[in-house]
Each structure stands twice: as structure tokens, then as C-alpha cells.
Design a protein that fits this description.
The longest helix has 32 residues, at 124-155. Helix content is 50%, strand content 12%. It has helices at 41-49, 54-57, 66-86, 102-120, 124-155, 161-170; strands at 2-8, 19-24, 35-39, 88-92.
Length: 189
Amino acid sequence: MDLKSIETFHHLSSDHLPVLLRLGPFTGENHTNKFKKITDWKRVSTALEEVDTPSLNAIPNDIVSNKDIDTAIGALTNHIGTVVTNCQRKVPAKSKRRGLPADVRELIRVKNAALSRASAYPTPELRSRACALQREVNERVREFRNNKWSDLLEEISPSHIAYWSMTKALKCDGYVATSTLKKRTTPVR
């Protein structure tokens, strides 16, 4: 196996820089996937705590030879790979719908770093800075969404499908008649 490529991901929820290493035969082509896989690591953790599985039961209790070591390593590797695969889901690689501007993404990164510092060193100054950044991020995201909504409303015409979808969503199904409350003549038991 050769290392095909190394990609870095700039996620908003992490202060770390995740790296994706692609392994396989090198073809010289850059294949961009339309989907990416998201792993639920909490599910992986709980699934790996399960020790009574057929693949783990195949590992001998007494490992005495190199062949036994290789068998145990292979069984454990296959088990971990299966668990990780079962805890993944496919999502579109690039979504144009939710893209935030670069300055808002950077502000979110700064806010996450401040929250991390405030959690590690809970001083009043760090907590107030983190709270201020949270308020600023919320305001900037709200402002971005409002601007995006305003732009959509300005660009749609009465023949646009979004116009009719919005009208349908706001439409009431009709008036439901309810009877007036009447005084009960018989006591409730």
C-alpha cells in the first residue's frame, strides 16, 4: 500500500487539525468523493466494550507461537475495522447550503479555543471572554442567516418554487370549529 494523499480538515468543533491519510495503490489521479463518512466514536467505544463477540472469541487464550500472535492481531484488527464500519454513516462531502463565511468560521474557532481555555483554567476573565465570544458568534450567525433569508426573498419571483413552498408552509388547513364550554348539569364522579 502506498500513501495516496494527505488532506487536512478545518472543522469548527475542534481546536486540533484533523488529517485524512488515503492509502492504496498510487494511480496519479485525484479522486474526490461525493460522500464522506462520519464515525460516531461514542458508539464505537461502547461497541468495543463488548467482549463476547465471535471475532474476539476466535482469539486463543494461550498465545505461545508467532502464528498465534498473528492470528490474534488479525482477529482484533478485523473486529475493530468491523465495529468502526458499522458505526459510520455517509453524508455529502460538500454542502453549499450551510456554508458560513470565512470570518464567521474563524470567529467560531477563536470561540472554541477560548471555551477550551476557560474550561482548563476557570478564571473570571477567561469565562467572560468566552461568553462574549459566544454572544458575538450567535449574533454573527443570526445576522448571516437573516441576510441569506432576505436575499432569497428578494430574488424569488411568484413562479419560483421556494415562493410556493413558503406559501404552502404558512397556509392554514382551515378553521376547526370547537364547541363552547357549557356548565355541566350532572356532577362528575
